[in-house]
Amino acid sequence: MTRVKTPVSASIPKEEKKIFGELSRDIFDTANPSPYADNLKKGVDEGLVRKISADKNEPQWMLDHRLLSLKIFQEKPMPTWGADLSHLDLDNIIYYASAGSKNTDDWGEVPEDIRRVYDRLGIPEAERKMLAGVGAQYESDMIYHNLKKEWEDLGVIFLDMDDAVKQHPEIVQKYFMKCVPATDHKFAALHGAVWSGGTFLYVPNGVKIRDPLQAYFRMNAKNMGQFEHTLIIVEEGADAHYIEGCSAPKYGSQGLHAGLVEIFVKPSAKCRYSSVENWSRDTYNLNTKRAIVERDATMEWIGGNMGSGVTMLYPCSVLVGEGARCDHMAIAFANAGQWQDTGAKVFHLAPHTSSKVTSKSISKGGGVAVYRGQLKIAPHAHDCTANVECDALLLDDISRTDTVPDIQIRNNDVTIAHEATVGKLSEEDIFYLTSRGIAEEEARAMIVNGFIEPIVRQLPLEYAVEMNRLIELEMEGSVG
How many C-alpha atoms does 156 have within 13 Å on its Cβ side? Predict the structure, then answer.
């Protein structure tokens, strides 16, 4: 008998589906009016960088950092590998825009038109049901940030980055862009110059946050760029799970997302970072994420990349302490007109470290999905274990998938495995399902959801449902 995996959403009670059960593309593609963006300057120069810093009343050291980053950005060439960026017009992007809403910890104080966006996305309801804290960013500004009192009383700090720079300058200056320096690549430098908003999370020694914390980033205006900065420090023996979601409406004109995530996982600590990135087809998603993982600590990355026209994203774990470990689990869906260039980087820089990378991609309608990975094991990093698994599913004959692994091993006392598979939808599975009264389109969606289920099940319930519904939306009209 043919065995077909049941998608996550099939086993979820109806009452648990209400946030995302009626999800439609209109939820993400509907834009608010944006008069605040009319006649805003496009492109980036020193004047804009100084304006951003002045508007935020930043200390001198941050302005100096921004100006140095701008200089690096202007000198660095565009990447010529991976996805094609030759059509990205950096002079036609709005790098900084405020909708005029002040940051608050009360949803009722958020302007009604903006609040409606987050209500449609289910953020307030998710906060009530399952989250220890929530942040919400609209354009360049955080408009809401709140942490439940029980965690605040234990010393957890959960702020937007603009406030963190002023309220905790000694911590921010110690860690800000130390994990990903501006010299790393052109878009890291751009981020260092124009970053705005984002999340600062600090978890003290031994504190294990029971529920996830989340931030949701929304671009609204045409030709908008978003450059939020996420800085997470999980101290020794602590435990935290942080989720990021994001979306933008479709205009038929370029947008740019070049956020940056830096995570520091101290000895014996654990951090899980989950994200569902669903930017519009207009968006170039050129995000950078990296974690430094110390002795006996664990870093877990769970990711889904869906919407953007072009994505280049390779979460990185730097295992610097003996016994450190990391898990990378990711899904990429490439539909017509999309190039999803995603993967993972793992650097084993200490003995007895271990890593596992599980990547799944789906290509449809001529979309391109690329797994691009890098695995490095240092000469002194003996007794390491690393495993990379890449599974690709092609839904037609015009789509494409590639695997581009870069494996550099500098000693012989290690165990390394790399496996890559490519397959198509099984006609036998489709026949089995349709013979039992299931429509062919629904049968295809069920098989795809079964393919991604090992990763989706790692997400909290509401986000597992959202991911399955997003896949179903992408699968609509796929018969034939």
Answer: 29
CA angle 216, 254, 176 (to 5 degrees): 45
Pairing of strands 198-203, 157-160: antiparallel
**Mean pLDDT within 301-326:** 95
pLDDT for 405 equals 95
Spatial CB neighbours of 155, under 8 Å, sequence gap ≥ 6: 204, 207
Q: Looking at this protein, which amino acid is placed at residue 269?
A: A
How many degrees, rounded to 5, is the angle at CA 62 between CA 257 and CA 79? 35
Question: How confident is residue 456, by pLDDT bands cut at 50, 70 and 90?
Answer: confident
Between residues 405 and 462, which one has the greater pLDDT?
A: 405
- Residues 6 or more apart whose Cβ sits within 8 Å of residue 381: 319, 348, 349, 350, 351, 353, 410, 411, 414
* 8 Å CB contact between 168 and 156: no
* Residues 6, 7, 10, 16, CA torsion sign: positive
Return all residues near 404 (Cβ < 8 A) that are at least 6 apart. 343, 370, 371, 372, 373
For the chain, how many helices (H) and strands (E)? 12, 24
d(CA 363, CA 447): 14
Mean pLDDT of 114-128: 76
- CA-nearest of 448, 454, 437, 443 to 470 is 448
Pair of tokens at residue 251: 């205009």
% of residues, the chain, pLDDT over 70: 91
- Classify burial at 55, counting beta carbons within 10 Å of its beta carbon; exposed 0-12, middle 13-18, buried 19 or more: middle
221-278 confidence digits (pLDDT tens)? 899 999 999 999 999 999 999 999 888 888 888 999 999 999 999 999 999 999 988 8
75-86 pLDDT, tens digit per residue, is 999 999 999 999
Dist. CA 51–CA 60, nearest whole Å: 13
- Average per-residue pLDDT for the chain: 89
Exposed/middle/buried for residue 210 (C-beta within 10 Å: 0-12, 13-18, 19+): exposed
The answer to whether 110 and 101 have CB atoms below 8 angstroms apart is yes
Kindly list the distances between the CA atom of residue 24 and the CA atoms of 10, 295, 342, in Å, as whole numbers in the listed order: 18, 44, 25
Residue 77 is given by DSSP the state P
Give strand pairing partners of 265. 234, 293
Look at residue 480 and tell me whether its pLDDT is greater than 60. Answer: no
